[in-house]
Specification:
about 300 residues, alpha/beta, 12 helices, 10 strands, about 45% helix, disordered N terminus
Length: about 300
């Protein structure tokens, strides 16, 4: 009968030791489960115990262990459970939060948004003195800026309406990047030249490479803030005209995701739109909305 190999946690003194540490972390089932339980409590993200998630956690948490000089998952888990170190907690959330995004991702949604705004403009269908938008999983900023570009290009009358745009995420580090609005050439090269010309300013980074920053007047139109979709209770002064919550619900358990969707719908104005990820439509059971396009719902 073959025996499973037991790894002892090595030090971080060499490349060989780092490789051994990575293998040890992959084998640490109990430590993985502890951290998976903590990230679920903090963010709602579910990480089932499988090879893919074990590899993801080992790759992303290993640098955090090095930075804080923890020997293994258990030491990190203990420090997180004791609490009192928000910096560590934020770093832990940041390293396990997936931030895959690009400008105008799932582009058909922006066509729907443009038509929605154009139709309301044509009908002078604005009964309040503000237009309110919420991007509830903003990641590194490409999504909220894509929404902003679409609103402005569709003719949203910001001369008469106050645009109140909230972009939230659970990851403070990624929010800081989003609010700075700096992107590499490869991140903007697929954008139309007109978009780059109007909304971006080119500059040279520290490596003398071309980078692009969202122009200041457009960055100031969006308020970036931390918000936990699972733990935080919405306490907004008014309802929203549009809410985007795309490609984050898939990381939650089904009941949790359904509760989040219900919360988002409760924050919409009648006639407002909710945008979900294309693979998340099965999570919506609420009868207070109707589908108007794939993964786009209007509040009744």
């Amino acid at each position: 009968m073959s025996q499973s190999i037991k790894f002892k946690p090595p030090s971080f003194d060499s490349l060989e030791a780092n490789n051994k540490t990575h293998q040890y972390l992959l084998s640490d089932e109990a430590g993985f489960n502890k951290l998976a339980e903590i990230i679920k409590h903090l963010t709602g993200i579910t990480l089932p115990s499988n090879d893919k998630n074990k590899t993801l956690m080992a790759g992303r948490v290993h640098p955090l262990l090095q930075k804080y000089q923890f020997k293994n998952y258990s030491e990190l888990a203990h420090k997180l459970m004791v609490g009192g170190n928000k910096g560590l907690e934020n770093a832990f959330i940041s390293c396990l939060t997936t931030n895959t995004t690009h400008f105008f991702r799932e582009s058909t949604h922006y066509d729907v948004l443009k038509d929605y705004i154009s139709e309301r403009v044509a009908k002078h269908d604005f009964t309040t003195n503000s237009f309110r938008a919420w991007c509830s999983a903003s990641s590194s900023g490409q999504e909220p800026y894509s929404i902003l570009f679409t609103l402005l290009n569709a003719g949203l009358p910001i001369e008469q309406l106050a645009l109140e745009f909230l972009a939230t995420d659970i990851d403070l580090d990624i929010l800081q990047r989003a609010s700075a609005g700096n992107y590499g050439q490869e991140e903007v090269e697929q954008l139309p030249a007109s978009i780059r010309q109007i909304f971006f300013r080119e500059f040279k980074n520290a490596k003398d490479q071309s980078s692009f920053r969202i122009a200041s007047k457009f960055r100031k139109m969006i308020n970036f803030a931390k918000f936990n979709l699972i733990q935080d209770k919405p306490n907004f002064k008014d309802k929203f005209d549009i809410i985007f919550c795309r490609n984050v619900l898939i990381y939650f358990e089904k009941d949790t995701a359904t509760s989040v969707v219900d919360m988002l719908i409760s924050q919409l104005k009648p006639g407002g739109l909710l945008f979900l990820g294309h693979v998340e439509t099965g999570l919506l059971k609420n009868k207070n909305v109707k589908a108007i396009s794939h993964a786009v719902y209007k509040k009744l």
